[in-house]
Design a protein that fits this description.
CATH class of the largest domain: Alpha Beta
Number of strands: 11
Helix content: 25-40%
CATH topology of the largest domain: Spore Coat Polysaccharide Biosynthesis Protein SpsA, Chain A
Largest sheet: 9 strands, mixed
Number of helices: 11
CATH architecture of the largest domain: Alpha-Beta Complex
Order of helices and strands: EHEEHEHEHEHEHEEEHHHHEH
């Protein structure tokens, strides 16, 4: 199956990041030899599963970065990630949208084609409408020692949320309101669990919350099937949203040739 992909590049750079990287839009921050978004795009473009790529963000700046690329489209960003996604979906509908959409932000320059392809392959083994990766604390700290992430202790282990999503096109309209809340909380599994009621929260607090229980509650509330995919790749979760992350990115990506 071929997937259309959406890169959400409308995010404004945080005050702390802007002090050391003077760019209004975090996607444009230079890391090594390239703007941050270019690492994300290149990992996507090399995937055997990806067809069209839509980037939602500052169109003029993005066009200048990707002037030599093909099968790539641009649309203005919205006031938040969900509005930016809706704008991208509108364009994809005009172009002929794929059955499933791969969505990711522009601030994950560590992402690799291997991590993307592994996530996609795992989702294709399961029937569901929405897929979300999580990675274990052990995996993250082995790949990026000392990286600061928000973790949740579940019955299945200690995990942090990822930054890739796959969504079946047919359910997009159905979940937009909840999607906004999920995207805003994507880095915090505890905050996500709060959306699903006190019963789920109590299970979390007492250490009895499992991934399967969270998935079941997700379906009860939204009416669609959601599945968490445990990824062996820390790259799906580590993003750049504070100075320490940018320092880590410079360390790991300096000298990279794409």
């Amino acid at each position: 199956m071929q997937y259309d992909a959406v890169i959400l590049a409308g995010g404004q750079s945080s005050g702390e990041l802007r002090k050391i990287a003077p760019y209004d839009n975090e996607a444009l921050i230079i890391i090594g030899n390239y703007p941050m978004i270019y690492y994300v795009y290149k990992a996507l473009r090399r995937s055997q599963y990806v067809d069209k790529v839509v980037i939602s963000g500052p169109v003029d700046s993005l066009r200048s970065i990707f002037s030599r690329e093909e099968n790539i489209f641009f649309v203005g960003g919205g006031d938040n990630a969900v509005e930016s996604f809706v704008n991208a979906v509108g364009l994809l509908k005009e172009k002929g949208m794929s059955e499933k959409i791969l969505i990711m932000p522009s601030d994950i320059p560590f992402i690799t084609t291997e991590a993307i392809d592994d996530f996609i392959r795992e989702t294709e083994k399961i029937e569901a409408d929405f897929f979300y990766p999580v990675t274990s604390k052990e995996v993250n700290e082995r790949r990026f020692p000392g990286v600061r992430r928000t973790y949740a202790r579940l019955k299945d282990g200690i995990f942090t949320g990822g930054n890739l999503f796959i969504l079946r096109s047919a359910v997009i309209e159905q979940i937009m309101d909840m999607a906004l809340k999920l995207v805003e909380r994507r880095k915090n599994l505890l905050a996500i669990s709060r959306l699903f009621g006190l019963g789920l929260m109590w299970k979390y607090i007492t250490g009895r919350l499992s991934i399967a229980a969270a998935e079941k509650r997700f379906q009860e509330i939204l009416g669609i099937r959601g599945k968490a995919i445990i990824s062996p790749y820390a790259e799906v979760g580590v993003d750049v949203d504070k100075p320490a992350d940018l320092e880590l990115a410079h360390k790991h990506l300096a000298g990279t040739q794409l």
